[in-house]
Amino acid sequence: MVGGTDTDNLIRRMLAAALTNGLASQYNWAGKHDKRCFSTKKPFKNTAMQGCLLAAARQCDHKMSQMHFEDMVKSWLRFAPNRQGGIPRNAPEQQGAVPRSPDAGGK
After folding, report:
1. Where is this region: Disordered (predicted)?
2. pTM (2 decimals)?
């Protein structure tokens, strides 16, 4: 049993237990074209695992809507490449900015 502090935490923990970050990086919710890496990802919404995870989450929270579950899964899948070691979008090196040293304050 995975458990969690609330429904959102439960869904994230179930996904982390069921999928590695490498495998999750191959999926998005609808399987549409990914603009950032120019590849087509597999649709997670059509998998048997999605149905099993939704049913398991509803065992703990009977009032949870399909939309809330979908939003949590979409968010978790979106950030899977970063958890695998990818570079976050806002990294200073990517934007061409030079990181400030701590003693270079506004003096």
Report:
1. 82-107
2. 0.70
Number of Cα atoms under 13 Å in the Cβ half of residue 64: 21
Whether residue 107 is contained in a domain is answered as no
Domain count, the chain: 1
Residue 31 covered by a domain: yes
SS3 of residue 101 by DSSP: coil
Burial code (b: 16+ CB inside 10 Å, e: under 16) for 24-53 equals: bbebbbeeeeeeeeeeebeebeeeeebeeb
**Structural domain containing residue 74:** 7-83
